[in-house]
Every structure is written in C-alpha cells, then in structure tokens.
Hints:
Blueprint: E1 2-9, H1 14-29, E2 39-44, E3 49-54, H2 59-68, E4 76-83, H3 86-95, H4 101-104
Antiparallel strand pairs: 1-3, 1-4, 2-3
Amino acid sequence: MRYVxxxxxxxxxxDKVISELNNWFRFFAGKDAIGIELRIIAKYEGRGRLxxxxxxxxxxxxxxxxAMAGRESEVAVITVKVTGTMRKALAxxxxxxxxxxxxxxQS
Length: 107
C-alpha cells in the first residue's frame, strides 16, 4: 500500500474533491479498480488536507486523478507527498505547512 498526502484549496471543498477523486480514479483505472476503494485515512478539514491509502499498482491512477480533480471548478488539488507507511504519512500531514498558505497571505 501507498499513502498519499493531498492539499485542497479552498479548504471548504474537501468533500467535493473526495468524490471527484473517486470518479477520476475509476475512470483512469478502469477494470483494475474493480473491488478497490480509495480509503481516506485522515481528513484534516481545518488544514485542507487528506491522507489516502491506495494499492501500489494503482498509485499512478490516483496521481492522475489528483491532477484532474477540480479542473472544471475553482478548486486546486496538489500531491504533497507519497509514502509507504501510514505512520509517516500522518506525521507528514500534521507537520508540513499547508501548500497554499501563500494564497491566503500567510507564511
């Protein structure tokens, strides 16, 4: 399994992005995604951050989904880090500064 840390801007669209990611993931993975669900490990709504679990062989489809999510709206989605352990992913999600702070006028 791989764990992907994702930032969403604006933060209030995090639930919309989750459903969009699932849709794009299914579109890209096709038959490889049968019986596979993206598992949300952690959702930091205040930080606009998600930690998602995905099988190793389907990681490329999730990364493609992140690139496409929010394209038709005013939502930005970016991959912060991909790691191999849940513990490390949660540590990164709680310690790395929010990617979009510069848009918010914060440092």
